[in-house]
Amino acid sequence: MVIALQGFAQNTFQTGYFIDNSGSKTECLVKDVDWNDNPTKFSYKLSEGQEVQVKTIAEASEFFIEALSGPVKYERHTVEIDLSSNTLNSLGYNSGAEFETKQLFLKVLVEGDTDLLYYNNGNTYRFFYAKEETPKQLVYKRYLTNGTKIALNVQYRQQLKVELPCPTLTKEIDDLKYLIGPMINYFTTYNNNCTKSAASKTYEKIKKKATFNLAIRPGINYSSLSNAFKEPKPTSISTRVGLEFEFVAPFNNNKWSALIEPTYQYLNLKSESGPNELYRSFEIPIGIRHYIFLN
């Protein structure tokens, strides 16, 4: 395993605001972390040159940032949420939602007569809708049946038909996928065509794609070996050549990447007391790289 630390770019403070528990709004600079999972706190500065401060979910009911990837808004809500895992090895046999009460920063995706909000934590993601009340989860769940067969609870489609009726969108609901893009499109259409919401707004993140980097990694090694009989040490200066393949994750401002570096090494040890020794090796190190953002 290889862990590398490198300077690469900068996590910047962008224009934004937060609202505290008293309802007071503070204009400030909010640190653009490009969260993949919903945060529980955020860093801010009142202005350039001021000290960095932190607000937790217990201290702020809302915050907004003009992030590099597009405007981002989070609202604090206490909701009933099903946190069942979506990963295959953690699926259960209960087809129904298993709700827990949680206080969360929910990400606002669509804002209007009916809001669409989003929660993500690792492999668990959930959508909520809010129509001037506490957000309600749209239920989607993977579960096991008949041994290892995977089944789907797509109750969210029925919820939309019954709780947010719109005759012109009934067919669209039957094919609606539980994914960010389709859900944003549906709620935007719903607000514009079914409720005629004049204040409808979409907070859609600029799509980032995972990137791949390829680099040649040549090198020179100096080798010196000894044995238990304290014989003269054979020495050699050898060459190595490798290719580094790097996958850069499309979140957290590209701070994380995974890499693999197949390397061939040729070593000819020159001995003072015997014949030369020839070694060849092929290595495939893998690792995780974390870029450190510097001012």
Question: Tags for this entry?
Answer:
295 residues; mainly beta; eleven-stranded antiparallel beta sheet; 10% helix; disordered N terminus
Tell me about this structure:
The protein is mainly β and 295 residues long. The protein has helices at 155-163, 170-174, 180-194, and strands at residues 2-7, 13-20, 25-31, 41-45, 53-56, 60-67, 70-82, 99-111, 115-121, 124-130, 136-138, 141-145, 149-153, 201-202, 211-216, 219-224, 235-248, 256-260, 263-269, 277-283, 286-292. It is extended. Helix content is 10%, strand content 49%. Strands 2, 3, 4, 5, 6, 7, 8, 9, 10, 11 and 14 form an eleven-stranded antiparallel β-sheet that branches. Strands 1, 15, 16, 17, 18, 19, 20 and 21 form an eight-stranded mixed β-sheet that branches. The chain has a two-stranded antiparallel sheet with strand order 12-13.
